[in-house]
Amino acid sequence: MSNIDVKCVNAIRVLSAEAVQKANSGHPGLPLGSAAMAYELWANHMNHNGKNPNWENRDRFILSGGHGSALLYSLLHFFGYGLTLDDMKNFRQDGSLTPGHPEYRHTVGVEATTGPLGAGMSMAVGMAMAEAHLAATFNKPEFPVVDHYTFALGGDGCMMEGISSEAFSLAGTLGLAKLIVLYDSNKISIEGSTDIAFTENVQKRMEAFGFQTITVEDGNDLAQIAKAIEEAKADKVRPSFITVKTQIGYGCPAKQGKASAHGEPLGEDNVKALKENLNWPTQDAFAIPDDVYAHYEDVCKKGIDAEEKWNKLFADYAAKFPEAKKLWDKFHGEVDADALLSDEEFWAYEDKPQATRALSGTMINRIKDLLPQLIGGSADLAPSNKTHMNDEGDFSKENYAGRNLHFGVRELAMAGMANGLVLHGGLKPYIATFFVFSDYMKPMMRLAALMNIPVTYVLTHDSIGVGEDGPTHEPIEQLAMLRAMPNINIFRPADATETAAGWYLAITSKTTPTALVLTRQNLPQLAGSSKDALKGAYVVADAKKDIPDGIFLASGSEVSLAIEAKEVLAAAGMDIRVVSMPCVDLFEQQSDEYKEAVLPKAVRARVAVEAATDFGWGKYVGIDGTTVTMQGFGASAPAGILFKKFGFTKENVAAAMKKVLAK
């Protein structure tokens, strides 16, 4: 280990500790303990170029322990990603490029938003899956244009979270050899020694998952870390898990190895002691010696050279395989939204009752031929979710070119892996399960919304229409839960046209995830449904008068029911409008004029009809309106009986409107 290497490692430690200290907030323990492994990886084993952070064939790095963000920001600063000393001085401050946890699309070089422990591990697995699929799709003999690694760094907390086990279990099954996990093993968590809650042999667990396991006894030994990373790369059939034994807060005499180093500033005196202990040449704050910067600049040349070599390889590839280059551009380009909107075949359907899950399955097999970058699957429910792509093969250790993903019964990790598939670039993934199990997926759906990435969720069996499986499988509050989340479109279609609209929304979205909430039971095709569903709400069956007597609002399977109730009321001389509202989120984005045209303020007699909780409908029905919704958890019986039992009949819906009008 050269003196300049030691100095550069310590520069990461000092800069991280000072950023946390100046903010008087943050987590210095991980950066101090992990600095050596991070430096060795970034300096000598990762292909990356700070001058072009979006280079397609760069190695990916995920800091799963996102609380240690000061480590990542220090790396980005020293490795030329444009993060300045002033940015480091503004750590955790309003509007800075160095927020408390790394945020994708906010800070250049951050590959994923991390913070919830273990999340980064699942996203890393998704990235490794993307690399494997794209390599199988595009690589030619002597032209490995897709050939890079995914590295993830996390600690004991990441290993405790169940999402990591879910994701690693699948990674081992799939033999994702380009995935390398660095485990910062310091045996400390917030409450003290991990022995109070975590005594398992992590290496044996990872070995059981199918990983190569390697141990580095001294987390400051760059030579041993280097040897471990190269050994990991040498295994071409298994992902690798490198346990690096470290000390949290390394270098700070009063904090080293203690839980107090985890999540609080070291204190001015301890920062001073840290510098003295590391033989740092100055006590001045944020003062980095010139020879450190000079060495980092020299190291960065390797990344520039690696990209230049790849650019030449890719240019030769494009010249020799022009059709492959066209396909590459399609994978990495945007969907032609205008062309799709006017594509009659995309919007075509059979005029017969069908479940929207079945209609969605038809759309998937229609879209797969339009978008070769579409890839997706289910948490062991593809036959029920109708998410299988015909004739496209299964993604597996034996066939990474397959487009059908099998996640197993792992909903939480599935959602995290989907994030990784999008973050990697070049693919449009969808994932699926029963709607009630969105409860398992929600934390990773939230991260997708926060990162502004367009994951598509196919969520079937959307109500008490599930029937005999009973209340454990009948979603009641999930619509309200997901509608409450910012930046996600929850789309519950009523028929074929609206289902096509939902898929159009999903595959053309650039910054917003889409959840398609679909029925198990058959629904009729509606005469009045249209592409106006893309506005979130529209008049699907109008009153004869300009100003209707009342308005029904409904989504999904209850739209046809509301139309039937309208007919009942028409026979009694009442003129009612029916508004289909497949996506509240989209409707809220429309102009005030459009909202008024659909829901005139003058019409205060309103009834919302939805086989879910009434939470959220008050905004639209007002104090004079009411709802026909669920007040409890459903029951186990055939769907038709349940809809009658809980009041979802045309007679009861009509009676609810009569009561409102009588006011």
List the helices and strands and how they pair.
Layout: H1 3-23, H2 29-44, E1 60-63, H3 69-78, H4 85-89, H5 119-138, E2 150-155, H6 156-160, H7 162-174, E3 179-185, E4 188-189, E5 192-193, H8 202-209, E6 212-216, H9 222-234, E7 240-245, H10 268-277, H11 290-320, H12 322-332, H13 337-341, H14 344-347, E8 354-355, H15 356-370, E9 374-378, H16 382-385, E10 404-406, H17 411-424, E11 428-434, H18 438-451, E12 456-460, H19 478-483, E13 489-491, H20 496-508, E14 514-517, E15 522-523, E16 538-541, E17 550-554, H21 558-571, E18 576-580, H22 584-588, H23 592-598, E19 606-613, H24 618-621, E20 626-630, H25 639-645, H26 650-662
Parallel strand pairs: 1-2, 2-3, 3-7, 6-7, 9-10, 9-11, 11-12, 12-14, 13-14, 17-18, 17-19, 19-20
Antiparallel strand pairs: 4-5, 8-15, 16-18
Structure explained in plain terms:
Residues 354-525 form the Transketolase-like pyrimidine-binding domain. Its cofactor is Mg(2+); Co(2+); Ca(2+); Mn(2+). This is Transketolase. The protein has 663 residues and is an alpha/beta fold. It folds into three domains: 3-305, Rossmann fold (3-Layer(aba) Sandwich), CATH 3.40.50.970; 337-523, Rossmann fold (3-Layer(aba) Sandwich), CATH 3.40.50; 535-662, Rossmann fold. The strands form five sheets. Strands 10-9-11-12-14-13 form a six-stranded parallel sheet, sandwiched between helices. The protein has a five-stranded parallel sheet with strand order 1-2-3-7-6, sandwiched between helices. Helix 16 links the parallel strand 9 (374-378) and strand 10 (404-406). The radius of gyration is 28 Å and the shape is elongated.
